[in-house]
Design goal:
24% helix, 7-stranded mixed β-sheet, 826 residues, 5-stranded antiparallel β-sheet, 41 strands
Length: 826
């Protein structure tokens, strides 16, 4: 029987860790696995006497909170933990995270639990031989799964169980604080960081006596480790971050941040016993490793083990006297930001702007670059999708239905919380004009702030609900299938599919379906591009790409073949309607091509049953799908498809490709000289070029190495300080507060971003040639073509590389314009 346990209770003598095995890191992992059937099984547990009902298992999600799905939409189940149940019980609105009576140091909601710090321990009661029984030892709430009838007691419980938990957490905190609670080393902002040290906050929360273990026997420094083995001391080699290994508590949050969240795989455990610590690559110094300086490890670190150097300051645009940059204290006072890591807010000061608005103020125009989102604090906003010009052909697949997009209006109130998040997350242009209907206040946030907010479970559900609703409306509005429907059908169609459609997200390279697979679901491309490859005789005979607004899978869904092109369209329509009325089903066909994601892709999916019901009920939609399918088959669209190299070179997504006509080019290199002269020394303190004349060939043209302003900006993904964004002409602009991490250059698949030393920013760094000495080093800064208009002063772009070419050889084109040029010469 455990100490202080009520008399007469059984103590569970079965060791719960028998249900676990150890992985290669020595961490406990469960042997038994949940199934998708556990989603529907509900479990009621009590936490400090309060009941909460949760599912036995929930779908596995990534670090951003997106549910992970395979191409068939299936999810991977994971057991619901005690900490998950506490989140549901205590967190009702953003900011309630502080109410959870379970302290954590090694865990965050967007990370997989490892249960190494043990501060989240709780007392658990279950049932054994029909009687209430206590677990022999305290167990970690972040990892332990819920079970029917489970009773959980946290440090907030006033009784004996709570006292046992409190004393345990207090002792653990005192032991950790004795050696690891300390100020950040210079030049980090030590005072500002110290008040947000999570170890110090935990010690204060549980009333720990910080000097309890500060005797000489406990404060001896760890023995020195051999080179390349064990932890190091203070590491200042990174130009952006500081690593104080003596403050590390081995919580592994930095390891999971680097490996699971950012997938950089740089940080891991090293050493053994007293010399154990974290290491970069093969225990190299941080500045000499493959670290990309994304900052995820620093933001995740709960102590002063990894901090930052204040080297770059954001230049924030102002909107008159009505705008103001919010300080970290103002942000922390808001419930929405109270659960965001303070280190992040301190590091990213200037990325949240308060704007006072009046009725009639326009926050953004349709087509503007979507670099920010708007949190609505007060007042009402309206989003207006304006009528556009007739739909232009989108490649060889858009053969029918040149239509005018109808206007779409909806009001957004503080209850909806946010607007503009779609453009902000995807880097796409604004798809609506946003204006103020009443006086109020909005907070304008940048992309990486929104990304951090999206990781909060309390906010994610609300954002997902709004995201789903607006994505559906905009997906319908952007697809030819639903544009300009008759008034009687327009609302009925939207209402029909609103609860039936779901969204599928694929990463670059992931296959949606393969040729000759059964034709079942249909998809509408929300954003991104799909590679369509037709195989013949075990080879890819034709390759093309299609983008947003296009439909995939309609031919296989209805089972059409080339032989159907000779049939009368009205006859097909009549027989299809009759077959669906009688049996509500028709024989399906097979996929005519293999479809693969070329970039981050989102599709709206309607399964076969619902798709056929929609076709049966709505004659205009049915007619359009038939016309579309027969048009593709009749014209043999794939025979006129893009040349394979057009897709392989990524030209399909270029909006401003530097094209050099080799029939006219003499190699004078005036284009490069014009680029250097036009930009001068403003950005890097020395003359640099933003383009190279060399590049891949396509037809009679050379594709210069310069930013293409891709429709889906690969380079903008993951920028730690949000220093890269779209400009007025949708070009890529790199701001002065770039920290030179090189992530954008690594993300660019076309080598169009250059990392060049910034002579305007020189810092002192350890000199590897002279130990103990320092030298001044120019930090790298990214450079990319901004169409010679980073500030957006021109009404239309006028890049110097094109303007100064004396032979009319250099041009800027979209991918489709280039394709037409090449095909026109054949």
């Amino acid at each position: 029987m455990i100490a202080n346990s009520p008399e007469g209770l059984f103590v569970r003598d079965d060791d719960d860790e028998g249900l676990f095995s150890r992985n290669f890191n020595g961490q406990l992992v469960r042997v038994d696995s949940p199934t998708s059937g556990d989603y529907d099984k509900e479990v009621t547990v009590q936490i400090d006497g309060q009941p909460v009902t949760v599912p036995l298992a929930v779908p596995l999600a990534d670090a951003s909170g997106n549910i992970i799905q395979d191409k068939e939409g299936k999810t991977t189940p994971r057991y619901t933990t005690i900490y998950d149940a506490a989140l549901k019980l205590y967190v009702k609105t953003p900011g309630d995270e502080a109410k959870i009576p379970i302290p954590v140091l090694c865990h965050q909601p967007h990370m997989q639990p490892v249960a190494v710090c043990r501060l989240c321990v709780v007392q658990i009661y279950g049932e054994k031989r029909g009687k209430r029984a206590a677990e022999r030892k305290l167990l970690p709430a972040c990892q332990h799964p819920v079970k029917p009838g489970m009773e959980v007691f946290t440090m907030n419980d006033p009784g004996r169980d709570g006292d046992r938990v409190r004393q345990t957490v207090k002792t653990l905190t005192e032991l950790l604080s004795a050696d690891h609670l300390k100020l950040a080393p210079a030049p980090a902002p030590a005072k500002e960081l110290h008040r947000f040290n999570e170890l110090g906050q935990a010690a204060e929360r549980c009333g720990a006596i910080l000097d309890r273990f500060q005797s000489e026997s406990f404060s001896q420094p760890a023995p020195a480790s051999e080179p390349l083995r064990g932890r190091r001391n203070l590491d200042t080699t990174s130009p952006v971050f500081l690593v104080d290994h003596s403050a590390c508590i081995l919580c592994d949050r930095c390891v999971r941040a680097c490996t699971d969240v950012k997938e950089n795989n740089i940080i891991g455990r090293t050493g053994k016993g007293a010399t154990a610590g974290i290491g970069f690559d093969l225990n190299a110094f941080m500045g000499q490793s493959g670290c990309v300086q994304c900052g995820e490890c620093m933001v995740s670190c709960p102590t002063s083990a990894i901090t930052f150097k204040p080297i770059a300051k954001l230049k924030t645009p102002r909107f008159g006297r009505s705008s103001k940059v919010l300080t970290i204290d103002e942000l922390r006072a808001d419930p929405l930001f109270s659960a965001v890591p303070p280190k992040f807010l301190l590091w990213q000061q200037g990325l949240v702007l308060r704007r006072k608005i009046r009725a009639g103020d326009i926050l953004c125009h349709q087509g503007d670059p979507g670099n920010t989102a708007f949190l609505i604090k007060s007042g009402n906003l309206q989003a207006v999708v304006a009528k556009s010009a007739p739909l232009q052909k989108q490649g060889v697949f858009a053969k029918v239905l040149q239509a005018v997009t109808p206007s779409l209006r909806f009001t957004v109130t503080p209850e909806q919380m946010i607007i503009g998040e779609m453009a902000c997350l995807t880097g796409s242009p604004r798809n609506a004009e946003i204006l103020a209907l009443t006086k109020g206040e909005v907070w304008e946030i940048r992309r990486n702030v929104l990304d951090r907010l999206m990781r909060l479970p309390s906010l994610r559900e609300r954002l997902d609900s709004e995201y789903r609703r607006r994505s559906l409306d905009l997906a319908l509005n952007s697809s030819y299938l639903f544009r300009r429907l008759p008034k009687t059908e327009e609302r009925e169609v939207a209402d029909f599919i609103r609860e039936r459609i779901d969204f599928v997200r694929l990463k670059s390279g992931q296959t949606l379906f393969r040729q000759n697979d059964p034709g079942d679901d249909i998809y509408i491309i929300r954003f991104g591009h799909v590679r369509v490859a037709v195989g013949r005789f075990d080879n890819e005979a034709k390759v093309t790409s299609i983008g947003a607004g296009n439909i995939i899978g309609e031919i296989g869904l209805l089972g059409f073949t080339v032989g159907d092109t000779s049939r009368d369209l009205n006859e097909i329509d009549r027989k299809l309607k009759s077959a669906l009325d009688e049996a509500n089903d028709i024989p399906g066909g097979f996929r005519s091509a293999t479809c693969t994601a070329l970039d981050n892709l989102e599709l709206a999916r309607l399964n076969r049953e619902h798709a056929l019901e929609m076709i049966r009920r709505f004659p205009t939609v049915r007619r359009r799908i038939i016309e579309r399918s027969l048009g593709l088959l009749k014209t043999d669209a794939l025979s006129d498809s893009y040349p394979e190299e057009f897709v392989e070179q990524g030209l399909y997504e270029g909006q401003s490709i530097l094209v050099i006509d080799m029939d006219c080019c003499t190699g004078c290199d005036e284009c490069t000289k014009g680029c250097v002269q036009n930009h001068g020394t403003h950005s890097h303190g020395a003359p640099i070029t933003r383009m190279l004349r060399d590049g891949a060939r396509f037809g009679d043209y050379t594709i210069g190495t310069a930013c293409r302003s891709c429709t889906v900006p690969h380079c903008m993904s993951g920028c730690p300080v949000d220093s890269i964004h779209r400009g007025k002409h949708l070009q890529i602009v790199i701001e002065d507060h770039c920290i030179g991490c090189g992530l954008c250059a690594n993300n660019c698949p076309y080598g169009s971003i250059f990392m060049i030393p910034n002579e305007k920013r020189r810092v002192k760094m350890p000199d590897p040639q002279r130990p103990g000495r320092q030298r001044k080093v120019s930090l790298p800064k990214a450079a990319a073509c901004d169409l010679c208009d980073s500030e957006g002063h021109h009404s239309s772009p006028d890049p110097a590389c094109v303007r100064v070419c004396p032979h009319d050889a250099a041009h800027r084109m979209t991918g489709e314009e280039l394709l037409r040029k090449v095909l026109g010469k054949k």
